[in-house]
Amino acid sequence: MSKSGVTYLNPPSAPPPAGMYSHVARMTPGEVAFIAGQVSIDGKGNVVGAGDLAAQVEQVFANLGGIIKDLGADFEQVVQFTTYLTSADSIPVWMSARSALFPKLFPGGKFPPNTLLVIDRLVKPELLLEVEAIVRVPG
């Protein structure tokens, strides 16, 4: 197991990952935190990057990062992400923004499992992305 208590794996029976994710995350015993989906809202409740998915990716992961830090963890203790996009046309922008951001968040080059869903809309129509996380909290 890694020092974070989370190890990312791609078992031989699984197909190659189609992006920056692993098929499996294994963790040592510890507390687990389930973080509600974060959207591109700043600390004052304002939408950041209306109509700009790349800007919203930055804000969403800044929000997640703050919560994860408040829990005493870091991104390398993320066990799983679930990502919601409001348009299939946004997938290439999501992949590009993630490719720029994830090497900074996961410097070891291992990425947690991620399920990507395309949905009709989010709580506010100007929001294009929501990401929820499961995190292993050090005990």
Describe the model.
The structure is a single chain. The chain is of the alpha+beta class and 139 residues long. The protein has a single domain (32-137), classed as RutC-like (60s Ribosomal Protein L30, Chain: A), CATH 3.30.1330. It has helices spanning 53-70, 91-105; strands at 6-9, 24-27, 31-38, 78-85, 114-118, 129-137.
What proportion of the residues is helical, as a percent range?
10-25%
CATH class: Alpha Beta
Order of strands in the sheet with most strands: 3-6-4-5
Taking all Cα atoms into account, the compactness measure Rg is 15 Å
Distance between the termini: 15 Å
Tally of helical runs: 2
Task: Describe the SSE topology.
Elements: E1 6-9, E2 24-27, E3 31-38, H1 53-70, E4 78-85, H2 91-105, E5 114-118, E6 129-137
Parallel strand pairs: 4-5
Antiparallel strand pairs: 1-2, 3-6, 4-6
Could you give a short description of this structure?
The chain is an alpha+beta fold.
What are its keywords?
60s Ribosomal Protein L30, Chain: A, 4-stranded mixed beta sheet, 139 residues, 24% helix
